Amino acid sequence: MPSRFTKLPAEGASVFGALCYIFEPEKTAQTLDVRIIDTVRNVVVGQLRFYNTRHLECDISPYLRPLADCSPLPPISPTGVYPATDREIGIEMKISYLSQPDTPGQPSMFHEERSPRRRFVFARQRLAGNEIRSSLPSQRLAGFTDSEEILFHNLSPVRITLTATGRKPSLVRTFEVHEAGQHIFCLNCSEFPDAEKITVEIEKTGRIEYTMIRHPRGSVRMAWTSRYGSVEHYTFPMIQEIERRRGKVSARPEMRYTLRSAFENHAMMEGLSEIISSAGVWMLDKDSLRTVNILTDTVKIHRHGSLSVADIVICAPQNDPTRWN
After folding, report:
1. Ranges under pLDDT 50 in the chain
2. Do domains 4-70+87-121 and 128-214 have the same CATH topology?
3. Which of 17, 21, 100, 249 has its CA 20 to 30 A from that of 81?
4. Which of 35, 172, 40, 49 is nearest to 93 (CA)?
């Protein structure tokens, strides 16, 4: 029986689930080395060694999860399409082994084989065809100086149509995406100062509509990673409470904020609630972003008829924020 991979993970699978490979060498391998290769950077991200094996089965997901590292785009990024290279990873398995000789005294045979390339996502939801990968509803609010991100996946070339409507004649801009895969569409609202509504429609994929508003003084702009691997944005219009404490780890003080959302419908509440389980949460301003910690494991929701407001407590260590690059 020839050497071969008899099982591979699905294309677009999540690194937070099992990613199992099964490899059966032609003969019993005296030593079998496995290298997990990032095909984009062409670097080895994990290695394993097995002895005297005829059947190899391994789950590589624990080697990939620590590589998840994404952050929001700078708010000054121009409106357009950006690569989503930090939301996924391309992997190839390289297997090298020595097999036992057929005749005693003969030298061992060296074999080398590579798996087909697979793409895995740094998200809990796997890829599923043409889709906007977001946990927030398609009807949203945005400020005139906000920057919004839309992560989407397309199976073929698509056209993105942006339509800004308001007191002046409508403004329409189009953007072409020629390659299949994941991409980020950045909407810089400051480029459309006269807009009252901005609609972003991605061909064969979906649309998101923003109603433009002016955020109140003292509002807090937050971003976090969703279960789809997208970076979601939301502006909390008010700070319910501020508490200054001494840090538990260092002598530097910590600022604790109780943020209160605007009145939102059920769909928006569902999306906002993901912030407490997110792997990355940031407080944003025009010059910098600051990594913050969520201090509550539940979102306190106050219902007012069909709408609700949510309270979330965050901790912002008083270290130097990261300046936008």
Report:
1. 1
2. yes
3. 17
4. 35
